[in-house]
Amino acid sequence: MRSAKDFFRPLAVGAPAPVREVPFRPSRMIHFFDPSNERMAAKVPAIAPTVDVLLGNLEDAVSADHKEAARAGLVATAKAHDFGDTQLWTRINSLDSPWALDDLLTLVAEIGHKLDVVMVPKVEGAEDIHYVDRLLAQLEAKAGIERPILVHAILETATGVANVEEIAGASPRMQGISLGPADLAASRRMKTTRVGGGHPGYLVREDPKGLLGTEGEMELPRLTFQQDLWHYTIARMVDACAAHGILPYYGPFGDIKDTTACEDQFRNAFLLGCVGAWSLHPVQIDIAKRVFSPAPADVAWARRVIDAMGDGTGAVMIDGKMQDDATVKQCHVVVELAEALAARDPELAETYEAAYKEQEQNR
Ligand code: GLV
Ligand code: MG
């Protein structure tokens, strides 16, 4: 076992020191593009300023005969553009594939100083993170990179879920974890062929209206409600991430046309503690932006509670609702997130200010 004292030492001579805290940078949407697709790559300069994170995808959805073109395309795109405040991430191929090693060797050497985060798919345990951790340190040292490239794991195997706490705490490089509902469904042998979202067969049904077996009883309609197939996994992932000071994300929602269900899935994840989701199509960018930015009325309310709570101890009543040391902490969560997002988004900042002013005027 490594001594706790060594945890924050670089894993290679000349590599940058690990971060002590995951820097919070807005990452409401991680926008995927396929760098082997020239049409898509050409749109990158226009899309980059509209998203928090731009991710060059090298793994699934890039066919085997396009893997090298995707890697080269990402290098070319990163070299050709300055993305400003927008983070640049990549999803490398899985560690058991023939491409993962070359992905890391090439990307760190060529564009390591521009890459913020490497997303690693199909992570099963801490050993996968340790492998990437050491390799990144060696490559950073070799390339003279001055700040560590962070690592993001996709939770998409049953073994990964069983080990999610150790994955979250495996390295100071760990930035966050995303749910990968498609691979996870396959790994668990779940019987859904959808990418995220609910399923009409996964439901609860209200009780029959009278005694079972009475004549005509079974013909009376009984309401059903779809349940969330992903609740358990998201909640477990959020706890693992929060316990280790890293960030949880919902992953992909595959039904691009069903923007309503996408918004619902994103919002469930947001309410449970996630900070963002993947956008697979431009139509999902605004959904993620809307959902993962706290609502202006909630932010205004949270500010009112904080104002009223003074030093944060004791109890006060606001509009008939009890506030105390715990609720003020809940409000700080909302306000801190709103402020971090507003710092980069003047339009959002104005919306928050206007909602607060309106609330104060109407009191
Ligand atoms: C994402 O990679 C997924 O498998 O859902
Ligand atoms: Mg996957």
> What share of the residues lie within helices?
40-55%
Mean pLDDT value: 95
CATH superfamily (homologous) name of the largest domain: Phosphoenolpyruvate-binding domains
Rg computed from alpha carbons, rounded to a whole number of angstroms: 23 Å
N-end to C-end Cα span: 58 Å
**DSSP helical segment count:** 13
- Hetero groups: glyoxylic acid, magnesium ion
β-strand amount: 5-15%
Describe the structure.
This protein is α/β, with parallel strands linked by helices. It folds into 2 domains: 4-199 and 227-291, TIM Barrel, CATH 3.20.20; 296-361, no CATH class. Helix content is 43%, strand content 13%. It is built from 13 helices and 12 strands. The strands form 3 sheets. The protein has an 8-stranded parallel β-sheet. β2 (53-57), α2 and β3 form a beta-alpha-beta unit. α9 (259-272) packs parallel to α10 (283-291). The longest helix has 18 residues, at 126-143. The protein is globular and about 70 Å long. The mean pLDDT is 95. The structure holds glyoxylic acid and magnesium ion. Residues 60, 154, 156, 180-183, 195, 251-252 line the site of glyoxylic acid.
What can be said about this structure in brief?
This protein has 13 helices and 12 strands.
